[in-house]
Every structure is written in C-alpha cells, then in structure tokens.
C-alpha cells in the first residue's frame, strides 16, 4: 500500500520504493483476477440454471467482475504512466518528483462509479485497492462456496442413489414393496428425497452452505449435509430391515418346523392333562380339579397362514408373524405343562400318602411290631382308603396319620422296655 498523502513531495528513493510496492500489488491483483476468471466454480456458475439465494448473490457478483477489471485497467494505466515518468531521468528534478508524488500518493485515479455506470470519481491507490479487495472477496466467497457444495454433495448423493437402487432391487425381490411393507414406503420416500435434494443442490448450492462465523477469509464455511445424512441413516435402517427379511427367507422352513414341534408338544401335553383329569375325577373323591382347555386352534390357523406366506415368498409378512408365533407357541406349551401339573396334584398326593404308609409299615416291621393288632387294623383301614376308587384323600390322609402315630407309639414303648 502506498504511503498516505501528507502534502510532502516524495524523494527519489521513496518514489522507487512506492513503484516497486505498487508494481508487486498490481501483479498480485492481476494473478488473483485471472485465477478467479479460471476458477472451476466460476465457470460452473456462469453456465448454471440458478435459483434462490445463489441466483441473487451470483447476479451481484457477475456485475462486480467487469468492474474489478475496469479498476485494474485504471491501476495499470496509472502505474504505466508513473513508470514512464520515472524513466525519463535517473535523477528526477523537483517538478518530476512532485508529479510522481501526485500519481503515486494522491487522489489521481479516475474510476467509474459504483454501481457500474454511476458518476466518475477520483480516488487514491489505497482506497481503490481496498475497494477492489472487498469486491474480489465478495465474488470469491460466492464462487468458493458454490464450488465446495457442488464438489461435496452431488457426487455423494449419486453414490447414495446408486446404493439405493441396488437396495430397492433386492427389497423388491423379497417382497418389500411400497404399499405392502413399511420399508418399501420408506424406500420410495428416500428416493424422492434424494431426487429433490440433488436438484436443489444443483440449482441453489448456497442454500446448502454454512458460513464460518469465526473466519473472515472468502469461502470460509462448510457444506450443509444434514438432509443427506438423514437420508443415509434412513437407508441404513431400511437395509437392516431388508436383511432381516432375507434372514427370514433363509431359515423360514427350519423355524416353521420348530413351531410345529412346539405346538405338537403343547397339544400332547394338553391331551395328557385331559386324560389325567378324567383319571383324577374317577379315582379321587371330592376333589376340585381345574378344567383343561382345548388345543390352540388360533395358533394352528396362524401357523398355516405362515406356511402359506412362505409358499408365496411373502417374506416381509412372514417375518413378523413368525416372531409372534414363536413367543406365543412357547407360552402355549408352558400353559399346557401348568395344566398337566395342576390336574395331577391329587394323584401326586395319593401317591405320596401311599409311599408314607408303606414307609411307616416297613419301619414297624424292622422293629418287629408290624403284626401288632392295632397296627394291622389301622394299616388295613388306611390301605383300603388309598387303594379304593374313588379315593377320599382327606380320610386317607387321616388314616395314614393315625397309623403313623400308632407305629411310633408302639416302637417307642418297645424302646422304653
């Protein structure tokens, strides 16, 4: 930047230093403008059908670019004139130094007003350079941001769309289709979203740009990938659902066989429970025996439906049905076992009493008292109750207890004597 004008005439050394500095700035400006002109983002913006905020900002930037070149031409002519004047003499005189000072340090640069076509005005090198830097930064910010979004998002969207097409074909092959499976509807939604997103990114890239508030450099920020990320996560969820359906297809027959086996065991257990209940009612008197339900017909119907889904390759419907059936079949088997246990309790009690009676008699026999008249009488009474149908469990239990007490008393008497 040239020294500020103070009314002082520059010396020969100051003039040379100012020319060198301004020459370097001029060269840097030219390089920057040429790089901007050749920037890939700039070329894309020039040929794109833009909309929204991008169209608005690019229209302003497009008006600035020729103005920047116009200002650069003014700088070029001023620098050329100053160099020619300096080259006239190795040791310029007072008049030449004053003219050089005016060219290099005064408001001698005639530029077209802004916006383009406005009234002309005279400015100095520092002010013109500041205006050019601000205008260049404004244009570059648009170009860099648009190029960054176009470089990042469309390619990623295309890759995701290709993956989506492969997944859609796979999903269709296993019956995951729109209107038939929730994942099929989600596939269609993600497809529509990616198509819309790509069109919006191409037409209005700056709508997908998040500026970096802490940076003053042109193009500071990053592409906004929030919508893309949501679509990618949704695709991952759909892929897992399709994989689950494929898993069902692979092991569906084995799972159906296991289900049939579980339900058959439940049916057999319920049949045993019904048989046992009849036996209890016939052999045990005055006993409250719980009722036994019939076979799980609804589960058998749903199992037949599951088999039909497998035959017709409707894996998306088979998957949730198999999961429900596996849980309910195990519950049904457990319920059947509980029913069998509940109805056989009286028979178990009778068997326990029979075992207790025989154990007491064996103990009395070891003590040589089994044939005592009292013990024989009470044993016969208890045995008649336990081995007679229908068995009165309460009376039998009382009889066994009386025999146990009598045996203990007889054995105790023998021990004392």
Number of helices: 12
Task: Specify the structural class.
Answer: mainly alpha
Mean pLDDT: 83
Q: Tell me the count of domains.
A: 4
**Rg of Cα set:** 50 Å
Task: Outline the biggest β-sheet.
Answer: 2 strands, antiparallel
What sort of overall outline do the alpha carbons produce when their principal axes are compared? rod-shaped
Poorly predicted runs are 1-6
N-to-C series of helices and strands: HHHHEEHHEEHEHHHHEH
N→C terminal distance: 134 Å
DSSP E strands, number: 6
**Helix-residue proportion:** over 70%
Widest beta sheet: strand line-up = 1-2
Strand content: 5-15%
Short description:
By secondary structure, this protein is mostly helical. The chain has helices spanning 12-38, 40-47, 52-87, 94-105, 125-173, 182-203, 226-283, 297-311, 315-343, 345-366, 373-386, 393-416; strands spanning 109-113, 118-123, 209-211, 221-223, 284-285, 391-392. It is rod-shaped.
What does this protein look like?
It is a single chain. The chain has 417 residues and is mainly alpha-helical. It folds into 4 domains: 12-140, no CATH class; 148-246, no CATH class; 250-343; 347-416. The chain is built from 12 helices and 6 strands. The chain has a two-stranded antiparallel ribbon. The longest helix has 58 residues, at 226-283. The chain is rod-shaped. The N and C termini lie far apart (134 Å).
Question: What labels would you give this structure?
Answer:
417 residues; mainly alpha; 4 domains; two-stranded antiparallel ribbon; 6 strands; rod-shaped; disordered N terminus; coiled coil
């Amino acid at each position: 930047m040239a020294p500020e004008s103070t009314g002082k005439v520059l010396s020969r050394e100051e003039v040379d230093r100012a020319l060198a500095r301004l020459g370097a700035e001029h060269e840097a400006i030219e390089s920057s403008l040429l790089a901007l002109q050749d920037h890939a983002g700039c070329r894309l913006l020039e040929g794109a059908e833009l909309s929204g905020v991008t169209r608005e900002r690019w229209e302003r930037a497009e008006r600035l670019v020729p103005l920047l070149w116009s200002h650069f031409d003014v700088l070029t002519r001023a620098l050329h004139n100053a160099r020619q004047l300096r080259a006239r003499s190795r040791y310029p005189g007072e008049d030449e130094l004053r003219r050089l000072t005016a060219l290099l340090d005064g408001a001698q640069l005639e530029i077209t007003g802004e916006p383009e076509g406005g009234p002309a005005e005279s400015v100095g090198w520092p002010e013109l350079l500041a205006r050019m830097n601000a205008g260049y930064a404004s244009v570059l910010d648009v170009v860099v941001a648009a190029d960054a979004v176009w470089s990042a998002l469309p390619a990623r969207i295309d890759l995701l769309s290709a993956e989506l097409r492969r997944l859609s074909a796979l999903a269709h092959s296993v019956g995951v289709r729109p209107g038939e499976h929730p994942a099929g509807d989600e596939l269609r939604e993600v497809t529509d979203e990616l198509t819309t997103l790509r069109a919006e990114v191409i037409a209005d890239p700056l709508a997908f740009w998040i500026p970096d508030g802490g940076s003053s450099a042109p193009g500071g920020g990053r592409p906004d990938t929030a919508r893309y990320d949501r679509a990618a996560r949704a695709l991952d969820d759909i892929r897992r659902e399709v994989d689950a359906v494929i898993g069902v297809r692979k092991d569906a027959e084995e799972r159906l066989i296991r289900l049939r086996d579980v339900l058959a065991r439940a049916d057999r257990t319920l049949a045993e429970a019904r048989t046992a209940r009849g036996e209890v009612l016939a052999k045990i008197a005055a006993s409250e025996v719980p009722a036994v339900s019939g076979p799980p017909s609804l589960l058998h119907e749903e199992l037949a439906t599951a088999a039909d889904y497998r035959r017709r390759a409707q894996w998306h419907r088979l998957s949730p049905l198999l999961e429900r059936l596996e849980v309910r079949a195990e519950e049904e088997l457990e319920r059947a076992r509980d029913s069998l246990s509940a109805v056989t309790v009286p028979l178990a009690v009778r068997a326990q009493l029979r075992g207790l009676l025989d154990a007491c008699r064996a103990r009395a026999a070891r003590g040589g008292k089994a044939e005592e008249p009292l013990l024989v009488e009470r044993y016969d009474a208890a045995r008649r109750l336990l081995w007679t149908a229908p068995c009165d469990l309460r009376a039998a239990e009382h009889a066994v207890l009386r025999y146990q007490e009598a045996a203990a008393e007889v054995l105790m008497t023998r021990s004392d004597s």
